[in-house]
Design brief:
Length: about 170
C-alpha cells in the first residue's frame, strides 16, 4: 500500500517466542523429510495424492510425488523464516510512521511466524497422513485437522488486521 523507502528502519529484535516459532517450523519440515525417507521403502507404488472435503481419495499418483509436498513444506518454512527478518517490505493495512513502526513491525513479524507454523503444520500433516493412509491401505483422510488449521489461518489474519489497526491508534 505504501512506499517502503520512506519507512523507518527496523530495529531487529528476536525474542524467545519468535526463535521457538522459527525452530518449530524448521523442525517440522525436517521431520517431514525424515518421516518420508524412513517409510519410503514400505510405501506402495501408487499412493493417494488428493482428497475431497469429506476426506475421500479423488486421485492417486506415484509415491515420488510425496517429495513435492515435502519440498513445498520446506520452501514455505524456510522462506517465511527468512521473510520474517524483513518487515519493512511487507504491505500494511496502516501507514507506517516513526511513531508506530516498531509496534507494527513486531506485530507483523509475529503474524508471519505464526502463519508459518500453521501452514507448515498443514503441509506436514498432509505428508504424514498420506504416508499413513498409503501404508495402512485406508481409503479416507480425517479432514478435521485440516479444517481447524485453515480456520486458524483465517482467524490469525483477521486478528492481525484488528490488532494492526488498534495499535495504529495507540
Amino acid at each position: 500500500m505504501f512506499e517502503t523507502e520512506n519507512r523507518p528502519p527496523y530495529q531487529f529484535r528476536y525474542p524467545l517466542t519468535d526463535k521457538l516459532l522459527d525452530i518449530s517450523c524448521l523442525a517440522l519440515a525436517i521431520s517431514s523429510w525424515l518421516y518420508l525417507f524412513y517409510h519410503y521403502g514400505s510405501i506402495p507404488a501408487k499412493v493417494p495424492m488428493h482428497f475431497n472435503a469429506a476426506g475421500e481419495i479423488t486421485r492417486y499418483g506415484v509415491k515420488a510425488e510425496l517429495f513435492i509436498l515435502t519440498v513445498v513444506a520446506t520452501a514455505v518454512a524456510g522462506g517465511l523464516v527468512a521473510l520474517a527478518k524483513y518487515p519493512r517490505i511487507y504491505n500494511y493495512p496502516v501507514e507506517i510512521t516513526a511513531k508506530n513502526a516498531q509496534k507494527q513491525y513486531n506485530l507483523a513479524t509475529r503474524m508471519v511466524r505464526v502463519m508459518n507454523l500453521l501452514v507448515t503444520t498443514l503441509l506436514c500433516y498432509a505428508t504424514f497422513s498420506t504416508i499413513q493412509i498409503s501404508i495402512s491401505n485406508k481409503n479416507k483422510l480425517s479432514p478435521m485437522v485440516i479444517y481447524i488449521l485453515v480456520a486458524a489461518v483465517f482467524a490469525l489474519i483477521i486478528g492481525y488486521l484488528i490488532l494492526a489497526n488498534k495499535k495504529n491508534k495507540d
